[in-house]
Amino acid sequence: MKIVVFAPHPDDEIYGCGGSILKWMEEGHDVHIVYVTDNRVLITWGKEHDQLLEEEAKDYINLSEDEIGKIGLSEAEEVAKAFGFPNSNVHLFKIHDQDAINQ
């Protein structure tokens, strides 16, 4: 069976249904992940909520949105590789978080 998991942001697939994804893959299903956004909203959110960030995350505040997006997508690709996804089963829409509602 083909199963498609939509992740609004990179890492949402792990928090939302990571265990199920592993189970489906072990059962031989054709699992695809669609990453809708690339986490660029993090930079805007971080600047507004700096006091809430942990000490080690404060370095991200000085990065551009594009740099944050590249990190988010890179991490998504690393997770997909660790899970054993073929590249053809990982789909990156690269939509800015604030624009996703308008797409």
Automatic annotation (TrEMBL):
InterPro entries: GlcNAc_PI_deacetylase-related, LmbE-like_dom_sf
Pfam families in UniProt: PIG-L
SUPFAM superfamilies, alphabetized: LmbE-like
Gene3D superfamilies in the cross-refs: LmbE-like
Protein name: PIG-L family deacetylase
